[in-house]
Amino acid sequence: MTKSKGIGKGGARPGAGRRPRVATVDWNAVGRAYFTGSAPLDEILSSFDLSHGDLLAFAATNHWMIQRPTKPHPDDLGNLASALAMEMFSVDGVANRAPRFVAAMTALGARDVDIAEALQIGLPALRAEFGRELSRK
Questions:
Q1: Packed helices 79-90 and 27-36: angle between N→C axes, nearest 10 degrees
Q2: Are 94 and 121 members of one domain?
Q3: Backbone angles phi, psi at 39, to 5 degrees
Q4: In the prediction, which pLDDT does 22 show?
């Protein structure tokens, strides 16, 4: 017995699978609304026209923690670290966040090598791109 090769006999059916998103989602705005706001998750998702699945897929790919912490983590660095995190989410655009992050970490006394590791760049690149922020020690 052989397999039939006729049309409509197996294979992917038209329209099957996940539909591509037509509109581009501003994930920075979603993150700011979720992590710095107090609105319920359902309200945030509906305001950005997202489903819970869209959020979960993006969060898994980008290592977001979906649950808002209800109590401090035992390894939490305290209010200063929380203030730094809130400040980073309040800045529009990744290009604007990095200089603020470097300046804040420098003010906190972080080593250049640790800052470079956090930004996932080499030490020479850190010093070349963020020399002004690093000189504020």
A1: 150
A2: yes
A3: -70, 150
A4: 43
